[in-house]
């Protein structure tokens, strides 16, 4: 018997828990999530054990319920799907989207007429994060649009599809360094940067932020998660130029106090601005000499 290439998990969710569940499924290795009205459908390669996955997801949903999210029980269904179903299913869910005042993201396979004052990012995300549909990406692009007003040296940590590096390039950044620990994401970012003619002044590679210990940046962009951000905060601080800005997201609102306490310990970083979108928070920190 031929094993199907993918399986899907379908979970009934409420609007307030949608992003947290989608983010968790990505962390578990999902290659893509469809966010529908009352449910999430996440796709996984069939190498993962379905029973273990079911247990882990159920434990996570129990935790969310304990935190007060109103999730139904008996809400989780796993089915195997063929490879071609996955491709077409997933592509159907990726539509052009306006993610900020100036930026629209569209898949490479969609046609779109846009006005001359709008930047269009074309994207084939493959298996990387960053189609522009997630609230944290939108927070990052909205901050970037406001803080990148003149050519600056930019670091994009956890570039995913390359979406922030491409946006920075379109906003006329100076040099951009974009990195990701996931080589699959770096391949997707490289292809997307080429599609968007965003390769000049760009250095893109697979690796950890610690590889950049002496290079100073005016803007550091990091849409990661709480644990990686807490672990990397001192390093980000050391990588910032005098008066440089650090733009962060990937942090849940409920985690924000813990992250703020960590900022306070770094006396030369000042919290400049914060924005909440859905259950996610983004911060702009400014270095004070
Ligand atoms: C939430 S996605 C952000 C993608 C894109 N920058 C965006 O804003 O939509 C986080 C990315 O960070 C990468 N990542 C996680 N830990 C990292 C680390 N320590 N150093 C570099 N990249 C990391 C992941 O592989 C993933 O592609």
How would you sum up this structure, described in words?
- With 289 residues, the protein is of the alpha/beta class.
- It has two domains: 6-93, Sun protein, domain 3 (Alpha-Beta Plaits, 2-Layer Sandwich); 97-287, Vaccinia Virus protein VP39 (Rossmann fold, 3-Layer(aba) Sandwich), CATH 3.40.50.
- Helices cover 34% and strands 30% of the residues.
- The protein has eight helices and 14 strands.
- The strands form three sheets. A seven-stranded mixed β-sheet has the order 10-9-8-11-12-14-13, sandwiched between helices.
- A hairpin with a 3-residue loop joins strand 2 (32-35) and strand 3 (39-45).
- Helix 1 (15-27) packs antiparallel against helix 2 and helix 4 runs parallel beside helix 5.
- The longest helix has 17 residues, at 50-66.
- It is globular, with a radius of gyration of 19 Å.
- The structure holds S-adenosylmethionine.
- S-adenosylmethionine (SAM) is lined by residues 128-130, 137, 140, 157-160, 163-164, 179-182, 185, 208-209, 223-224, 228, 250.
What ranges have pLDDT less than 50 throughout 5 or more consecutive residues? none
Helix fraction bin: 25-40%
Number of domain modules: 2
CATH superfamily heading of the largest domain: Vaccinia Virus protein VP39
- By CATH, the architecture of the largest domain is named 3-Layer(aba) Sandwich
Spatial gap, N to C terminus: 65 Å
Q: How would you write the strand order of the largest sheet?
A: 10-9-8-11-12-14-13
CATH T-level topology of the largest domain: Rossmann fold
What is the tally of beta strands? 14
Specify the number of helices: 8
